[in-house]
Design goal:
Elements (H helix, E strand, L loop, with lengths): L3 H6 L9 H19 L3 H13 L4 H16 L4 H6 L1 H22 L9
């Protein structure tokens, strides 16, 4: 029997129905909504830097995200990194999004605006 949330978001047989899942889902929806509200690349970049900067030094997180992406892909030389830069950038972006989501999830005062 579908839950009330299934009626809103559609049935997903493997989706957890726990308070943690729905809290995390709310964080992700707020993050996506905030980014969608920014209409230009400059607005999106400025918003993203402010969201990250509310929790951690932006350059520190970006450096760590790149290092984790390169490590995850097993890249050890600058040539390997150059040849795989698109994938490194995608993984680093996912790492940074996950970091922000984790910070927002544990925060008593979220910084992502409601849409």
């Amino acid at each position: 029997m579908p839950s009330a949330m299934d009626n809103v978001f559609g049935e997903r047989p493997n989706r957890p129905d726990t308070p943690d899942f729905w809290k995390l889902s709310a964080v992700i929806l707020r993050l996506d909504g905030a980014m969608e509200a920014a209409t230009t690349k400059e607005e999106k970049d400025k918003l993203y830097v402010s969201l990250v900067g509310a929790h951690i030094d932006v350059d520190s997180l970006a450096y760590m995200a790149m290092q984790r992406a390169m490590s995850g892909l097993g890249l050890t030389t600058s040539t390997e990194v150059r040849e795989n830069m698109a994938m490194v950038a995608k993984l680093a972006s996912i790492y940074m999004d996950a970091f922000i989501a984790g910070c927002e999830y544990t925060s008593e005062s979220p910084t992502i605006p409601e849409k």
